[in-house]
Amino acid sequence: MDIMGFMVFSSGRIRLSDILFFYQEIMEVNVTIQESKIYEDVYAITANTGKALDNIDKLSLTEDEMKIVQPLMKESAAELSDVISSYGTLSFGEGEISIDFDLPVNWKDAALTTLTQCLTNYISNSICQRWFAMTNRDDVKYYADKVVVNATNIKKLLCERKKPQR
User: Fold this and answer.
1) More confident of the two residues 64 and 164
2) Are 115 and 158 in contact, with CB atoms under 8 Å apart?
3) Sorting pLDDT into bands at 50, 70 and 90, what band is 145?
4) Rounded to two decimals, what is the model's pTM?
5) Residue 106 burial class via C-beta count within 10 angstroms: exposed 0-12, middle 13-18, buried 19 and up
6) How many Cβ atoms sit within 10 Å of the Cβ of residue 85?
7) Which of these, 34, 101, 122, 143, has the minimum number of CB atoms within 10 Å of its CB?
8) Phi/psi class of residue 12: alpha, beta or left (left: φ > 0; alpha: ψ in -120 to 50)?
9) Looking at the DSSP assignment, which residues form a beta bridge with residue 7?
10) What are the Cα distances from residue 118, in Å, to 4, 58, 60, 65, 104?
11) 99 has which bridge partners?
12) From the CB of residue 96, how many other CB atoms can be counted at a distance below 10 Å?
């Protein structure tokens, strides 16, 4: 530091008064998604798509094929983990996916129900996108677009804030 209160760096001078440090309190928010709920959603989507195209045997997931969905769920969850990495972490438990967020205390907690639904939809739609890549390429883009919309909505919900009280 030189005599005038400047810090000298190789890139130039920065006044100490220009450097501000903000301390913000953080609250922990936990979202738990049951894997069985995701399986039900994926089964319903694939069954309805198969029924609509009169090809339910090819497109719909059977009970045996639900075991195939497990790796697709892991891939989708890893992708979701990248989406939320600035806000929290994702982990697998026994039959559930747990997402722990560190959010500012003024986060709008009324958005929790919608956030949970968007997270569930993200994983379900991502699995369907992967499944239809193997069985019905016509629907891949539709579900890829839904995944992008879900990711955008998740980020928006995580940025929600309560209005300040006066």
Assistant:
1) 164
2) yes
3) very high
4) 0.78
5) middle
6) 10
7) 34
8) left
9) 14
10) 53, 28, 23, 25, 20
11) 31, 90
12) 14
